[in-house]
Specification:
This protein is of the alpha+beta class. The chain has one domain. It is built from five helices and six strands. Strands 1, 2, 5 and 6 form a four-stranded antiparallel beta sheet that branches. A two-stranded antiparallel ribbon has the order 3-4. The structure holds zinc ion (ZN). Zinc ion binds next to loops.
Length: 157
């Protein structure tokens, strides 16, 4: 995977149901256009929405399938991970912003930086989307449609 050095802010995670403690990262400072994907484990990767043409292609198709995307962007955040190849650990990235406990997977976590925040450079891998690239436009549409159905944004027709 290609990786870029980014400044990341370290966040502490505290899992409410089980008290698991761990840490995660958010991209610090001006990260506009850099979308951070997470897996239910500790893996993160970024999707460069400005430089990667797959982003606009997937966004255009999603808008067409689900006009609600125009209003909130939420449907697209929910399906962007389906465009990406799986993580090195074999998991799907999520760009919806939810943070999981890496021990048990719950999203019932409290999180935040230290005071003052700890910021350091880190190599953040970039997502790849080789299988997406090999699909025809109609297969891409089909993949997004299934993802939108799975995420509850579309009815099964
Ligand atoms: Zn936990």
């Amino acid at each position: 995977m290609i990786a870029n050095e980014r400044l990341v802010e370290i966040w502490n995670l505290n899992c409410r149901p089980h008290g698991h403690r761990s840490r995660t990262f958010v991209i610090a400072g001006d990260a506009y256009g850099q979308l951070l994907g997470r897996t239910t484990s500790k893996e993160i990767a970024e999707f460069n929405s400005w430089e990667d043409p797959a982003f606009d292609e997937a966004l255009g198709l999603t808008r067409h399938l689900c006009p609600q995307t125009e209003k909130t962007g939420a449907p697209f955040q929910d399906v962007l991970g389906f465009v990406c190849d799986l993580s090195p650990g074999g998991r799907r990235y999520s760009f919806a912003g939810e943070i999981h406990c890496p021990e048990c997977g719950t999203t019932e976590v409290e999180y935040g930086p230290d005071e003052p925040p700890e910021i350091r450079p880190m190599e953040v891998p970039q997502v790849s989307h080789r299988s997406w690239d090999n699909l025809t436009t109609s297969q891409k549409n089909q993949l997004l449609k299934e993802a939108l159905i799975e995420k509850g944004w579309m009815e099964k027709s």
